[in-house]
Structures are given as structure tokens and as C-alpha cells.
Amino acid sequence: MNAGATGFGVGAALRRKEDARFLIGKGRYVGDITRPGMLEVAFLRSPVAHARLKRLTKPAGHEQQVFTIDDLPEIKTIRANSALPGFRVSEQPVLARGKIRHVGEAIAACIAGSRAEAEDLAGACELDYEMLPAVSDMTRAHLPGTPLLHEDWSMNAFLETHRNDDVSGLDAIAAAKVTRTLRTSRQCMAPLEGRGVLAEWDPRLEQIIVTTSTQMPHVTKSGLADCLGLDEGQVRIISPDVGGGFGYKGILLPEELVLAQLAIRLGRPVRWLEDRFEQLTAGANCREHHYVITAWADEAGRLLGVECDAIVDAGAYSSYPFGACLEAAQVGSILPGPYALPLLRCHTMSACTNKPPILPYRGVARTGVCYAMETTLDALARQLGISAEAIRLANLVRPEAMPYRNLVGKVFDSGDYPEALRRAVAAIDVPSIRARQAKGEAVGFGLATFCEQGAHGTSVYHAWGIPFVPGFEQAFVRLSPDGILEVRVGVHSHGQGMETSLAQVAHTILGVHPDKVRIVLGDTALTPYSTGTWGSRAAVMAGGAVAEACRQLGDRIASIGAGLLQVTRPDVVVADGFVRRIEGEGSVSIADVARTWYRAPQNLPKGVDKGGLEVTAGYRPDPDTGTHSYAAHAVVARVDLETGAVVLEDFVVVEDGGKLINPMIVDGQVLGGLAQGIGTALYEEMPYDGAGQPLAATLADYLLPGSADVPDVRLEHMETPSPWTTFGQKGIGESGAIGPPAAIVNAINDALASIGAEVTDLPATPERVLAAIAAARAGKA
Amino acid sequence: MSRIDITLTVNGEPRELKVEPRDQLADVLRGPLMLTGTHVGCEHGVCGACTIEIDGAPARSCIAHAGSCDGATIRTIEGFGDDEIMRALREAFTREHALQCGYCTPGMLVVGRDVVRRLPDADEARVREEMSGNLCRCTGYRGIVRAIVSVIVARRHARREGACR
Amino acid sequence: MKPSRFSYKRPASWDDAVKLVLAGARPGAGTQSLGPMLNLRLARPDTIADLRHLPDYAGVSVRGDTVRIGAGTTHAALEDGVVPGRLGQIMASVARRIAYRPVRTRGTIGGSLAHADPAADWVAVLPALGGVAVAFGAAGERRLPLANFVTGIFETALAPGEVLRAVEVPMLRDAARWGHWKFCRKIGEFSKATACLLDVPGARPRAVLAALDGPPMVIDDAAALLADPTGEARRIVAGCPGLSPWRQAIAEAALRHAVQGARA
């Protein structure tokens, strides 16, 4: 292995191979693809949140162009079960059947030659329904007397979980105790490209080909086959360039099933492209949490215990494959964060409401949990009169304790958590902030520390019992006759630069120049089975699989090369694209080895591996409980007391993602996540009224951070290898999105500490900040 | 509600088209003209992914009806050939890792080029202000801002050197 | 979403435009506000009369002490200084902060004013600058004071069949003092409260408070505001019904900052 030695391998900040096509407008997304005879689909979606659907009248003369669930009885309902005890399973019809459970739920597919005409049809349908009271407040959804979304359930909750450590004695011994009620808002992940599906039937292969903007082509394939009653060989999923995922495209879509069945029925290609209005009104589906959290500490700030009652608004259905409980059920296991917490009492509920079904968004539950824990820690520190740094240092798991198993059984692989925090604090001139505060300026300093479990595998997901438990990740590699190395993996890339990072991995093992490595992704017909790209797993899992496949291929190349050099296998190594004798002169290029196998097999040595120059190899870290990257965020924020507006003056991130395969790409992941975290902290909110109506229908109402809203973040890396992965790399794709709400609100609360005001709800809009100030002043008056 | 005949000059080529009055320019470019580098992101003028040049100025093609553009000169991401500023921007974008999924990139480049041309003395804060009408969900903007600033600075140096000679 | 069907007309003369509008056509200019509403099917006109090709629709001319700005003049042109002198300076500073440059290159001052979104910039600023809107109808041109041109949410003083042809604004001496402040959470976002104040030596200072979900409030004599910005801002805002405490706070802040700006 010659990691990074040539400047192209693991560790090199190599420029991205995929940039060339994007920079000239030649990226190819679903919406760029057309087929002869293709029809466009627009969905008639529910205008109301909760209703009994009585009748749909199709536009006269166009009855054959409008399809309801009664017209598509072949499609089974979507069921995403969970093995967690007490889970209530929802049946999600792909088009509303009998009942409407959220605004934007698809009711009918309307087909025409153009999208505009399809929308005309949707607009001309007449809908007759009987309104039911909407369940839009997650904190009251479970109460008796609330109308039930799923009428065979006993209450509007998918699941409750309990952890019952005894915290009753802590009041007596604690030096400080704080309780906070906190909430985060529902968000829309809002990748810049919406979802899109193009389905066509291939009569020759008797195969439905679905081109869809997805993060998980193989899971979609299996789900589609299940729900349409096809065998998996009859389904091919192609995911071309994907314009951002973030979890929004980690789902089996009702729309994918409808489009596939329509293409089979009509024998013509059909396409649906989600527009932004649909995305905002039917696809705001993450991050809505409510916490009542109590924490106890001794006088040094050491945590004695935490008690938490958490509710997550899971929406109306359990989405496939991750289900409705991934967020809430994880709250209890994530709450200890990077800290050595002795006691935890935690109750969680996945509330079922008349809103779009929840999906795991970058960071999943961590962003909310980190917000709850970190703001509570700061409140404790204020009560104890110690610094935010001190209370964290008193509780962070220490490097000498690694690997560390915490009280909920999570195993942290490696790292120096306190050092990350110290570096982040050192990067900020805290005394100058204190001096400005002393002069009455509303400026504050905020911290957040957290760790991110990534690439967690079989042992973790098996326990949750979701429909898809990730196992071994596979990669296929082939040395072509011309010496080009083809690498096929079942994960996908939606901005993560896998075409570059995986080429670097291959280069590190085989020495083939990255320009001569072709990474093939996003097509179930071409790639090995994979559960896809999510959960910060691709760099660890696919990176490991590609390395393993290249190693095995390298061994075969070496054997042939040794034969050509008339020495034995132990006498040679593969390096820099050559098979070289270890001692003495003599080498043969990998390309010559390839030519020999394919075009001059008469020259092959005896006893050569008959598998030739193609290898499929599998990989899973051992243990597979996941890598833990971690970070400390430090923020300086200024509050305008007049308007409540918050300005981020400085933002420092110290991050440890283990060995970085491509530091430039990792920076990009962290910075991109940060912008999303800043959105969660300050801007993004999908408000719902009491009738379950989403109130932000355009990007003028649902505010995404722009270039002027994100500071020039200062980013510093530590590189503590994970002992469990191929190169020591850790999953780090979500990290940036986890810390900002906690760090920013802590900075705001520090700025407002002299007033005694605290922000509790996200996003910290000017209105909420000003309300917190007014409440504090009213309380003092 | 008949279709209307329009003439556009698109990336230097005269094009005669029949369009529906309700067709937005973005859909005409992407559909009949097959110029799919212009991306549709929001269809209400906020995200900037569809930004192209109409008569030399950056504009949103999702809220400009093709009919009202009759006679206009259009340039899309596919039409910059070896334009010197665009070439410098592309090089800077890849160097500064200013793109990830690539969806916002064509709009970013078109607006970035306008900023470089129109505001030769812009600093980072001004670039951030000027680029605020183009949303990126992947990069956190640092690479985009750095790339554009670097092109502005390089041109400023070249100008000074030219003046000294 | 795609717009509903409509037919497209391109009047060659102002008389033709008026005929079309009288027959129910919706006038269209840069369509930077109308375009999104069409795409969302919030507006479903049968016909759009595209004013962009009318003679003298865009452009600026100075006659005596007044500058006539064609309704079709883009925000970008104003940003780039198409209006001369102190007035042009003020208008450029306002224009630069309307939406984003690629919107400003097509959006027009007349289109924005006639659309009469309460949060729009020219709706707030033009009443402070004084002058008149030039309406064109079947009976020819009619001049309407800009101070009460916008009468409600998406409502103007234009009579049925009239289209907005230009605005005529008095030129300003260099000594004119100007303050303008708006609150947007993000650049380019619609304002949540806007105030501006024009103080020309020898004339009564004039202020406008706008973007509060109704027509702009014109304060014809802002002397009291200049004298006691905090107290007077509170009094003025207390007179605006239905505002949340936060909206009241930023409205007061807007007035105070407008005064500060004019004093600077």
C-alpha cells in the first residue's frame, strides 16, 4: 500500500473527476432524459390534511388519462415494519384510498403529453371529501379523544420507548439541576433537484426500467418488486446524476410505484418531476422534535444523570425502508452524546400526525438531540457559574478510555474528544468577547460537541428490525484489455464525489492513475447489490469494498505478472501501475498483464486463476457497530436587540473524521452540512396551522441559507484513524449538519445571559429571539 | 390559445420555434432545444438554478415566457465556448471545490461571470451579496465565493500589470 | 408547476394596450412577480398583454425639474444609474437591494408598482420621493399622486382599463437627505417592515412606513419624527392595527433607522 505517496491516493486533495461534466452543463439528471412517446404525469394531491375521500370525478372526456388507486389495484400498499416491540404498522396506499392523511398526499395520477396539460387535468378533477379534524400538534396527538389517523390503532403513535434508570435520588445530591422545554421545527430537506421518476417497460427483457433520482437504487428495486409483485429480475433501477439527496431520496416512493405500474399498463414511457411547490407542501418531512429535558450535575459540572421526554412528529405513515421511528427511537441512544453519562431515564414517542411521513435527514435525530443536550449543558453551566468549556471537559469521554462503551452500549472507536474542544475554544478570542459583553454588547460565544456514528452495520440495524439491514458491501473491479480499471459499486453519489474518492482508493491499492479508473454507479443492472448511500457509510463501506476487490485483483495481476517476468508470485509487488520484481530489475505494466489475459492468453503462466481480471469482493468492518467521527463547533454570534436578528461573526469547526480519503471533499461535506445546520438554527421552518396546512409554499417563504447567510467557516482537522476500517477512515457526511443549532443558540443565549433570556425553539428567528428578550424583561419587571 | 411563432438567437444560432404562450423559456430551452444544462429548481425565481443570459444580462428563465423573449439573444451554460472569464471560473470552481451535486452550478457560473464583468473591484462581502440569489444546498458556498473572488483578484492583478507596462 | 393556458398579445401601441386591458387582459411587464403567480396558478388570466414592446416603455428623460421614468425601466437600469443626480443616487441604492440582479434585469419599476405588493420596494419608496404616476387609458394620460397610488394589498388607484405608463419624480438637489431601511431576514427576501424619509432643505420632511401587509402609510410632515424618532416611531406604529409585537418592534426600528440614515 502506498497511501498518498503519488499524490493521487488516499489522503490526496485530488480535484474531482466528475466536475468536468457539471461545469459545462452536461450533468444528466432525470429531468434531462426523455424517451420517444413519453407522457408526463402530474399528481392530483390532497388540499386538506385529514378527510374521508368520498368521490373523485374525472374530467369529462379525459377519464382514460386519470388514474386512482381503484384503477391500479395491482400495487400493494407500502409497509415499513420495525422489530421494535409495540410498533404500530401503517398501511400506506400509493394513492389515497378512502382516507386522506396529509396535505399533498397523492390521490390521482394525471397523464398528458406535457406537464402543463397534465396539471390542467389535475385541476379539472372534482374531489368530494368529508373533512375530519386534523392532528397537527405532535404533543397532543396521543391524547384520548383525538381522531385516529389509522382507525384500527389505539392511539396516534407509531411507537413508544422507555429507558428507566433510577434518577429519583439525584435531587438530593446534585449541586445543580435544570429543566428545559425545547422544540425544533419541521423542515424540508430541499435538495436543489427535486425527486423525479421516468418509467418504461422493456418488452424484450420483460423488465420495468425506472430511472429515478434516488440514493439507494437497489433497495428501491427490491421494494418495487415487492409492491408490484414482480420478480427482482424484472426490475432495473437507474439513478443518474442526483441533484442532492440528504435523506430526501432515501425512500421507496409511492410515485415510483405508480409510474412503474402506469408504464407497464400503458406500454409507454411516463415521467414525473417533482416541482418545488410539491416538495414544500407534500415533502416537508423531517426534524420536528419536542423535548422536556432535565439534567443534574455536581459542583464540578460532572453530569449525574439526565431525564428526557421526547416526542418526534413522525407524520402519517411509516416510510420504506427506514420507518417512522428511526428518529425517536434513537433519541435515547444518542442523548449521552460524547459524554460519560452515568444515568439516563428516557421516554420517547413517535407521534402519528396529519403531516408528510418523516424521513431521516442528514444527521437524523442527532441534530435535535445535540441541540437539546448542549443547550441544557449550557444552562447547567450558567447555574453552576462555570464555563461552557469546563462543563464539557468535565464530561467528555477521555482518549485513554477508547474504545469506549457508553451506558446505552454504543462503542466509540477512537479519538480525543477533549482536544477537539480545546482547539475550537483556542481558535476564538474569548476574552475579547467577554470584554465586549462587559461594555453591554449583545455578543455571545457558543459551543457544541458531539459525535456521529457512521457506517453502522448489521448488528445495529438488525436490532431496529427495519426492512433492510445492511450487510457486506460489495465492489466489482475489472481490468480491461486496455489497462483501464473499471470499478462498479452499488452505493451512489449525489454530490459526495465518489467517482473521485473511490478512484483514489483503487489507485492506492493498484497504482492505476485515477484518470484510468472508471467508477460505475447508479444502475442496478451494472452494479453489485448495496443498501445505498446514507448514514455516512459510503466512504467506509464502499471504500473498504473497493480496496478489498482491488487487493484480490492485484494478487491475480501479480501472479500473471510474475509469470511474465519468469519469477514467482512472492518475488513481485504491484505498485504504480506495474508488477515489479522486489529484488533485481524487471517490471511489467498492469496494462501488459491485461493485454496478455485478454489478447495473448497463450503467454499466461500455468496455474493462473481462472477468474481472470474480474473480481467481486465484499467488505464489512469488524466490529460493525460504526465509526464515530466527532467535532467541536465554536460560534461567535451577535444579537440585534432591536430586531432580534442574529449575525454569525465567526464559526470554527474542529473535526475528526479519521483518515481522510480526500480532504478537499471532506471539507466540502462538512461545510455543506454546516450551511444546512445554519438553516436549521436560524432560517428553515415549515409551519403548519391547526388544520394541518403547510404555510410555506415557496422558497420565498421557506428560507434556505444563501451565500450571505453562511460565514467563512474556519475548519480544522484532527485525523485519528478508526482502528476498525480499511484506511482508518470514518463516516463524516452528516457531521456538519449536527452541531450548528446547538452552538448557535448557545452563542445567542450567552449574548442574552445578562438579560436572562434564553431561546428554546428552533429556528431562532428574529421574532423568537425578540420574544425571549421580552419574556425575560417581563419576568424581571 | 394558439401557439405563437418566435425567433431566438440561442448560443449564436438563430432558432425559429412554435411555442405555447404559457411556455417558460427554461422549458423551451430544455425541451425542444435540448439544452438541459439550464436547470429548473423552483419555478418562482428564487433559487437561481435556471439563470441564463438574455440579451447579455443574467435572467431567470423560469419566469420569462418564451413568447415575450421573441427576438432576444439567449446564452446558456452550453454557449460560452472558450469565453475567457467562463474558462477562468470553471477552473476556479473545480480548484476550490465549488460544486458537489452540480445542479446549481450552471446558474452559479452565469451569475458569477456577470459579477466578474460588472464588478471588477468586488470584495468577498460584495460577492456574497451578489451571489445570494443563487441557492446551493451542497457546498456551504465557501468554494463558490472563493472561486469567484479569485477570478476577480486575478483579473485585477492582470489589469494592474497591464497598466504598469 | 406550469401556468394555466392563456393567450398572448403584444400590443404595438398604447391604445391597443388599453383596448386589450379593457377587454380583460392582464398587463405583463417583466413578469418577475406575475411569473411566479402564473406558475403557481394563483393568477389565471385568459390573456396577457405584453407591454414590454411598447414605444417609450423603458427609458428616462428629464424635463425641467422632473424626471420621467418609463414604467418598463428595469430595476437593473436604475441600479446602474440611468436616473441622474441625487435622485438617481437614491434610486440606485434602493434598486440594488430589490431581489437579485437576475431578477432586476427584467423586473420593472412600473410593473412592481402596479402589482402593488405591500412588501415591494418601489411601493414604499416612491410615495416618499413624491411625484406622480402617469396612467394611460382610453382618455389618454392621467396623473395620479404617487403618495396614494397604492390603495391596498395588490390594489392601486388605476381605473379599469388604465395601464401604468411612467412615473414622474421631482429631481433632488444634492442637499436632499435620505434614509431608507428595510428588514429582510435574507438578502432579496420580501421586506417585513420598510421605512424611508426624505428631507429636502426648505420643504417638509416626508416619511413612509410600509411592508406591513397593507398600503404604505405616508407621513406628510415628518418633522415630529425627526425631532423625537423613538417616541414618534412608537406613536406611529401604535396606529397600525393588527401587528404582532415583533412586527411592531421592527416597524419602529425601521422608522428610527430611516431618520438615522437621513441624518447621517
Automatic annotation (TrEMBL), chain A:
Residue intervals passing through the bilayer: none
GO molecular function: iron ion binding; oxidoreductase activity
Superkingdom of the organism of origin: Bacteria
Protein name according to UniProt: Carbon monoxide dehydrogenase
Alphabetical list of Pfam families matching this protein: Ald_Xan_dh_C, MoCoBD_1, MoCoBD_2
InterPro entries assigned to the protein according to its UniProt record, in alphabetical order: Ald_Oxase/Xan_DH_a/b, Ald_Oxase/Xan_DH_a/b_sf, Ald_Oxase/xanthine_DH-like, AldOxase/xan_DH_MoCoBD1, AldOxase/xan_DH_MoCoBD2, AldOxase/xan_DH_Mopterin-bd_sf
Keywords carried by this UniProt record: Molybdenum, Oxidoreductase
Record bears the keyword Oxidoreductase: yes
Keyword Oxidoreductase assigned: yes
Residues of the Aldehyde oxidase/xanthine dehydrogenase a/b hammerhead domain: 24-133
TrEMBL record, chain B:
Domain annotation 2Fe-2S ferredoxin-type: ranges: 4-80
Gene3D superfamilies: 3.10.20.30, [2Fe-2S]-binding domain
Keywords attached to this entry: 2Fe-2S, Iron, Iron-sulfur, Metal-binding, Oxidoreductase
One function term, GO molecular function aspect: oxidoreductase activity
Record bears the keyword Iron-sulfur: yes
Pfam family, one: Fer2
Record's protein name: 2Fe-2S ferredoxin-type domain-containing protein
Automatic annotation (TrEMBL), chain C:
Domain FAD-binding PCMH-type as annotated: residue spans: 1-174
Matches recorded under Gene3D superfamilies: 3.30.465.10, Uridine Diphospho-n-acetylenolpyruvylglucosamine Reductase, domain 2
A Pfam family that the UniProt record links to this protein: FAD_binding_5
Top-level taxonomic group: Bacteria
Annotated InterPro entries: Diverse_Substr_Oxidored, FAD-bd_PCMH, FAD-bd_PCMH-like_sf, FAD-bd_PCMH_sub1, FAD-bd_PCMH_sub2, Mopterin_DH_FAD-bd
Keyword annotations from UniProtKB, A to Z: FAD, Flavoprotein, Oxidoreductase
Keyword Flavoprotein: yes
UniProt-recorded name of the protein: Carbon monoxide dehydrogenase
Any one GO molecular-function label of the UniProt entry: oxidoreductase activity
